[in-house]
Automatic annotation (TrEMBL):
Species assigned in the record: Bifidobacterium scaligerum
Disulfide bond recorded as keyword: no
Domain MacB-like periplasmic core: 21-240
UniProt keyword annotations, A-Z: Cell membrane, Membrane, Transmembrane, Transmembrane helix
Superkingdom per UniProt: Bacteria
Name used for this protein in its record: ABC transporter permease
Limits of the ABC3 transporter permease C-terminal domain: 276-391, 762-879
GO molecular function: transmembrane transporter activity
GO CC, alphabetical: plasma membrane
Recorded family membership: Belongs to the ABC-4 integral membrane protein family.
Compartments where located: Cell membrane
């Protein structure tokens, strides 16, 4: 029987090709999805862990859950000496050790000034930035500057520069006396480890000690230690040297913690994203394969029945069909995996993703091969079970008669009951998932990292069951919709009347043909809706998290310098405002350092801030504050509604006459709160008052701030070019400090854009699957009706009318199935987006008019193309010959 099966496959290769292509595309998509997930996780890990450089292990804080002030003071006041670096270097297998220290510094070269974030030197492998030109600092007050800052200051390797430490304690700022350092190199930050600061300066150990105001490097505060280890390193000996509240973690554990920190609940962003759309994609690919193979086997029922007449028993025929499905599924799946790997390898090898700022590598794992092959094989076999059983119960006598795709009343009742049950269970699961996310969003319940995947999968399972119910019950609702659409189309002419009649004649045929297109359009619409929702939702969430693109602070900034900043390429708007540092305590007893900023009105603020300020009116009696502090903790003024701002203990400025007296009360203002954050990383919060408080003496100006809205695309050097340009414009201000949340914001936007690039690929695949499904099912449907077409020709229908009737029928199938797919897909897209993105903010529920309209147009065109060749065959065949063949 195996040889007969192979011969049948060889004889009917053309009929097998459409099913094989559907399997190939589905498995290629699955393999590519796994590979893309691997590549994106790898890219995110490299971005988030760039600060670790080439370290194999690191010593990180290990704090108790309920931290006391004494414990926090001990954990965060350690010096380099507390880690016993010399003893660590002496341990077997330890090749390098670097304590992590840092300082905010001011650099001066004559009348030019700049600020920078500085790190200490160390072994090349343990440095997170590279020395692009020259050498890394070693000792004797040596320094390596970022290339942009060196250019801004007019420095080259071998020159000298004045270095002063800029440090902040309780929000105040002071400067250690300048020291002279020799520039030994220029640094580059290829992995964006210090993108927020525009790169990092490397200081020799003695220079780091000097700018930290101590005489020896061992006295410098150290937050952690990075180690270069080999396989024989004695980690137990290292553990014995660790101070309290510290632990040694290997690189893989540090990578995992870094990537998990991207999500509020510990779930990887990429895993969550791909889980949502990947589950749906697996489902849709399975349905396409199943539908295509079912139509294929159904068309061969006569051949299978004829085998019964020559002695084959039912078991042999059943095994033959399953064997054929297994061979087809295995070959097509292997080809699909090869195609998926090839496409991803090409994507990674080219600069396609680099243009979006993402460096991708091909990362192979066992699921890339095993899951798609197993999926394709199993699905083709499962898809053949029903048709194979139906073919084996046909009697030999029935093999001599034409076989219509009909079903018994019993099967009809079972189908209706099954679809109703699946629909009810699916809707219940979807409602459960959405309700759980709603409770989490309003704060009634908190979804843990373990609980969230279960809720997500419940909702996805609900979508799967609901969609399967739609497909299974298509034989009931789709012909009804077709009749309604056909009744309108029948008014066009005789061809449309025939098309309307044909659609009503065989509900099973209509459902089988329309379901293929329904599946493809649903996938496209779901993904398009999810993509649009993701883009809008995450953009809004990022706007809340990073409220201002860039800021510059300092004393003595003039209007002329602010004007120069406005002319920097990429800086779109600038708000120049006075500032004063104050302290306050909220209703929960949280002590906060607050920078008060004087603004003319809210309209000028809204032009440079990404936040919703509608409905807020700021008067001279009010202060606008964020709802959350920089740390993420809530700022609570629900009970008092007013805030008493106390002057800082130390507020040294260049103009000591205007320094506020420590501990004196400031204005008592009514608190207005809005959802904005991350204006400055220096203070717990940045609040806004009217500028009148500075002009009438309520507040004394202690500095100025420039709030900037920027567009990285407008500068040919991107974010780095904008930051360097602003620094250059302010280089005459000795204490000017330019920071750019735009850099971190841009990194998140880049990640989202890269994910959107995946969605573009998914849409292309979905359209291709829909084209093949429509072409296959519609072509087989028209071939099956050869006798009908011949009869119509015999009673006088012209060839043109016959072609038009088939075209109208194809259009009705495409439009009705497409519209149903768009509606279902949009609803699924909204639910999927809510399940994923409600973790990050208010979820947008857009309707993608452009993409959905394009998909419907493509579906209509695909249906017309699919009908051309069968219609031509039916129209060109002489009626007598066609009746004889049928």
């Amino acid at each position: 029987m195996f040889s007969i099966t192979l011969n049948l496959m060889k004889k009917n290769v053309r009929m097998l090709i459409p099913a094989g292509i559907a399997v190939l595309i589905g498995t290629a998509f699955i393999a590519a999805t796994f590979l893309f997930g691997n590549a994106m996780n790898d890219s995110l890990i490299r971005q988030q862990t760039a600060i670790y450089a080439g370290a194999d292990a690191m010593i990180l804080p290990d704090l108790p859950e309920h931290l006391t002030d004494a414990q926090a003071n001990e954990a965060y006041s350690r010096t380099v000496a507390d880690y016993h670096l010399d003893r660590m270097r002496a341990i077997d297998g330890v090749k390098g050790v670097r304590a992590i220290t840092a300082a905010n510094i001011r650099l001066s070269n004559g009348t030019r000034h700049a600020t920078s974030y500085a790190i200490n030197t160390g072994e090349v492998k343990l440095l997170p930035v590279t020395v692009a030109h020259g050498d890394r600092p070693v000792d004797s007050r040596e320094i390596a500057l970022p290339e942009g800052i060196a250019e801004q200051l007019g420095l080259r390797v071998g020159d000298t520069v004045r270095v002063a430490s800029r440090w902040n304690a309780s929000g105040s700022q002071d400067f250690v006396e300048d020291v002279e350092a020799r520039v030994t190199g220029l640094t580059d930050d290829p992995n964006g480890a210090y993108a927020y600061d525009g790169g990092a300066t490397i200081l020799s150990d003695d220079l780091m000690a000097s700018v930290n105001g101590v005489s020896d490097f061992n006295q410098v505060n150290a937050t952690s230690v990075y180690l270069d280890l080999d396989t024989r390193a004695d980690t137990a000996a290292i553990d014995r040297l660790l101070p309290r509240y510290s632990r040694l973690v290997d690189r893989s554990e540090a990578d995992r913690l870094a990537v998990e920190s991207l999500s509020a609940n510990g779930t990887s962003v990429v895993t969550t994203f791909l889980m949502s759309f990947g589950v749906l994609a697996l489902l849709v690919a399975a349905l396409v394969i199943a539908n295509t193979f079912q139509v294929l086997v159904a068309q061969r029922r006569r051949v299978l029945a004829l085998l019964r007449t020559i002695g084959a028993d039912r078991r042999q025929l059943h095994a033959s069909v399953l064997c054929e499905a297994g061979i087809l599924g295995l070959i097509a799946s292997l080809l699909g995996v090869t195609l998926g790997i090839g496409l991803m390898a090409l994507l990674c090898a080219t600069d396609v993703m680099k243009t979006a700022g993402v460096s991708m590598r091909l990362v192979m794992t066992w699921p890339v091969v095993v899951v798609p092959v197993a999926f394709g094989l199993v699905m083709t076999v499962i898809a053949s079970l029903g048709p194979a059983r139906a073919a084996t119960v046909v009697t030999p006598l029935e093999a001599l008669r034409p076989i219509e795709l009909t079903e018994t009343a019993r099967h009809g009742r079972m189908r209706a009951i099954l679809s109703i049950l699946m629909f009810a269970i699916g809707i219940a699961l979807c409602a459960f998932g959405a309700w759980q996310m709603y409770l989490s969003a309003i704060g009634r319940e908190s979804l843990s990292a373990d609980h969230y995947p279960a809720v997500l999968l419940a909702a996805m399972g609900g979508c799967a069951l609901t969609f399967i119910a739609f497909v299974v019950s298509a034989v009931y609702w789709m012909p009804a919709l077709m009749r309604g659409a056909g009744a309108l189309a029948a008014k066009i002419g005789p061809s449309a009347v025939i098309a309307h009649s044909n659609i009503q004649k065989n509900p099973r045929r209509v459902a089988a043909t329309g379901a293929a297109l329904l599946i493809g359009v649903t996938l496209v619409s779901t993904i398009a809706t999810g993509a649009a929702s993701a883009k809008t939702t995450m953009a809004d969430a990022l706007s809340t998290r990073y409220s201002v693109d860039m800021i510059a602070t300092g004393t003595g900034m003039t209007e002329e310098q602010a004007s120069q900043v406005r002319h920097v390429q990429g800086v779109e708007r600038v708000l120049d405002a006075p500032t004063a540092l104050r302290h306050l305590t909220d209703d929960q007893g949280h002590d906060l350092s607050v920078l008060l900023v004087g603004i003319p009105d809210l309209d000028s603020l809204s032009k440079v801030m990404h936040a919703d300020l509608t409905g807020i009116t700021l008067t001279d009696r009010d202060v606008l504050m964020p709802r959350r502090a920089l740390s993420g903790a809530d700022i609570d003024f629900d009970r008092t509604h007013t805030a008493d701002f106390i002057a800082a203990e130390s507020t040294a400025t260049t103009n000591t006459d205007t320094t506020a007296a420590a501990g004196t009360s400031g204005p008592n203002l009514t608190v207005l709160q809005a959802d904005y954050r991350r204006v400055s990383s220096t203070y717990d919060a940045v609040a806004f008052v009217t500028v009148n408080h500075f002009t009438d003496g309520d507040l004394t100006e202690q500095g100025r701030i420039l709030l900037m809205a920027a567009n990285p695309d407008a500068n040919h050097n991107g974010v780095g070019g904008i930051i360097d340009g602003v620094r250059e414009a302010l280089n005459a201000v000795p204490d000017a400090n330019v920071t750019g949340p735009i850099a971190e914001r841009n990194m998140w936007d880049t990640t989202i854009n890269a994910m959107m690039a995946l969605l573009v690929g998914l849409i292309a695949v979905a359209v291709l699957i829909a084209l093949i499904g429509v072409a296959n099912t519609l072509s087989l449907s028209v071939i099956e009706r050869t006798r009908e077409s011949a009869t119509l020709r015999a009673i006088g229908m012209t060839r043109g009318q016959l072609r038009r009737s088939l075209a109208v029928e194809a259009l009705l199938l495409a439009v009705v199935s497409g519209l149903a797919g768009v509606i279902i897909g949009t609803l699924f897209g909204w639910l999927g987006s809510y399940m994923v993105f409600s973790l990050y903010g208010t979820v947008a529920m857009p309707f993608e008019w452009k993409i959905n309209g394009t998909v419907l147009a493509v579906a209509a065109l695909a249906a017309l193309l699919a009908s051309i060749l069968p219609a031509r065959r039916a129209a060109n065949t002489p009626p007598v010959e066609a009746l004889a063949e049928a």
